[in-house]
Amino acid sequence: MVGIDCTSYTFYQEITGAIMSTTVKPSADAAAIHNTREAVRSQPGLGNLTFQMKARSSGGLTVRTETGATIQNGVIDNSRAGKFSNIGDEPAGLLGTDTGMSPTEYIMQALAGCYTATLTMMAAEKGIDLDGIELDLNFDINLNGFLGLDSNVRKGAKSIRVDVHLTSKTASREELEALVSEMQKNSPIHDTLANPVEMITRLA
């Protein structure tokens, strides 16, 4: 279980030089969110969703990943298969060639994407007008575990720390703090990282 600290907030009534301003406001259609929720409520099977991905080694420590099909309620949708791809690598100091983000950075990217989407949708439903969302993320790890130097040190992250910067001209700090607190309870990636998940890995 990884501890995720998301208790530090920075609130700006106006965009300042302290953080980089976003060029496009975060937004979501509250009516569409409601309709999606009601569709799943009426057909609970629609809530069963599987995302697939393909990964292949690409020389050295690098890996190339690309999106696969999505499966919702047993129905396969191949429209996103191969649509997006990324290269993963390690920094030179960790024996990689630094040609792409590291796996730890992709974990932070996943969390950042989920936090941003969850905050945006929740704000839309609550009528909170956000002008910008920015996140500062830190992934803390002790390599003594991975390198087999200390059996008492876990191989994964010790903690993941996130500072959330929300910009709004109308919402109070209390409203934004409540939004961030509730967001952590609703983010699927936060839940995945903070709680045990069944992992099945086998030789195909």
From TrEMBL:
The signal sequence is none
Highest taxon of the lineage: Bacteria
InterPro entries (UniProt xref): KH_dom-like_a/b, OsmC/Ohr_fam, OsmC/Ohr_hydroprdx_reductase, OsmC/Ohrsf
Gene3D superfamilies attached to this UniProt entry: 3.30.300.20
Record's keyword terms, sorted: Plasmid
Q: Please give one Pfam family short name.
A: OsmC
Protein name per the record: OsmC family protein
Annotated source species? Klebsiella pneumoniae
Upper lineage: Bacteria, Pseudomonadati, Pseudomonadota, Gammaproteobacteria, Enterobacterales
